[in-house]
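Try it yourself: sequence plus guanosine-5'-triphosphate, in.
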Amino acid sequence: MLIGIVGKPSSGKSTFLNAACRTAAKVGAYPFTTIEPNPGTAFVSIECVCKEFGVQDNPRNSVCREGTRLAPVDMLDVAGLVPDAHTGRGRGNQFLDELRRADAFIHIVDASGSLDAEGRDVEPGSWDPCKDVEFLEREIVMWIIQIIQRDWRHISRRAETERLSLSKLLAEKLSGLDFEERSIRAAMLEAKLKTKKPTDWSESDLFSFTQILRRLAKPMIIAANKMDRPQAAAHLEKLHQLSEYQVIPCSAASEFALRTLGENGVIEYQPGDSRFKILRSEALSDDEKQQLTRVQKEILDKYGSTGVQHIINTIVFDILQLIPVYPVEDVGKLSDHDGNVLPDVFLVPRGTTARQLAFKIHTDLGETFIHAIDARTKKRLSENYELKANDCIRIVSSAATH
Ligand SMILES: Nc1nc2c(ncn2[C@@H]2O[C@H](COP(=O)(O)OP(=O)(O)OP(=O)(O)O)[C@@H](O)[C@H]2O)c(=O)[nH]1
Ligand SMILES: [Mg+2]
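Structure, out:
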């Protein structure tokens, strides 16, 4: 799974990545600090089943911290986008091609309204961040349209002359963008387009189709960043009125500072917490103490957290609707063949079947699947059993190795 971090220059994309992934991407108070994309690995937090089972686990593909399971999620922070980037303005939008495989986007918005569309400083509060949401949506859609257009004439003609399914042809041709055929079909239906006569589609037909496709296939969440600035609260109200998007208040810089102090043992803090505890007061200057008091009062008390962890969890669980499942080889010990207890957590789409999970673990396991066993009830599950959140499942197969 890959989550793309997008937004105009200087909105705080790299700061968000560094806060979430503990990376060291360059951050700067000037536009286009980032040119080459920065990858990172963030973690979604899940209440681990180890508590319910009363076992001490040894995770392999994830981490368990006092009953909270952290599962990795790949992220990519890219260069800033400016209006009309698709025509080559700013750094253009070529770099978005790195995000073809993204499953979802986080749009980092400067909610304090202190930067114009190009990321240049303006009077704090004077810029309406709703404009950023509008133009960024358009640029992402134009990026996808440009990719579709490379093959459009060919695809639309073939669909008509050979009477082939347009959605199937599009899905095949656009496989690099990871659009599923059902999303393509749903977007055509919602845009009320004539699928039998695609050569008649106008530019605005293609635009509305792509806009819907983007929403279905590459969902986007708005991170209203820089909430620590006094001008941000008023803009947040306006951003919340954009009914198409889920908007979450956020202070990437505060999260970065809290995590750094937490890792250095100066404070006790876990991502997503609404409080922290100072452990080594002597390691903090008066200035730092004042800043921490401000973060508690202006961010944590007001919004419940810095928003960074909340945004990542919301994308994975609410928007992409993934559920955690724990494959095990021994349903008694809840372990793998090496004795690791609850070794792995997999994030799978709601509706995934036991057999599909087997394929995700290993192709061989999917092919030689016999049945699955629920570790809680010890009952057999058929290949079509739809997994539930927090299922612990053993896959029984005819392959000698499993
Ligand atoms: N007050 C405040 N400043 C922030 C926050 N997040 C980022 N910044 C500041 O915003 C400026 C830009 O941050 P970056 O993370 O480099 O922004 P970017 O979006 O990656 O910028 P480009 O790579 O140039 O597109 C820096 O001065 C950051 O310190 C925040 O939550 N609050
Ligand atoms: Mg950057």
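One thing you can check immediately is this: The first strand starts at residue 2 and ends at 6.
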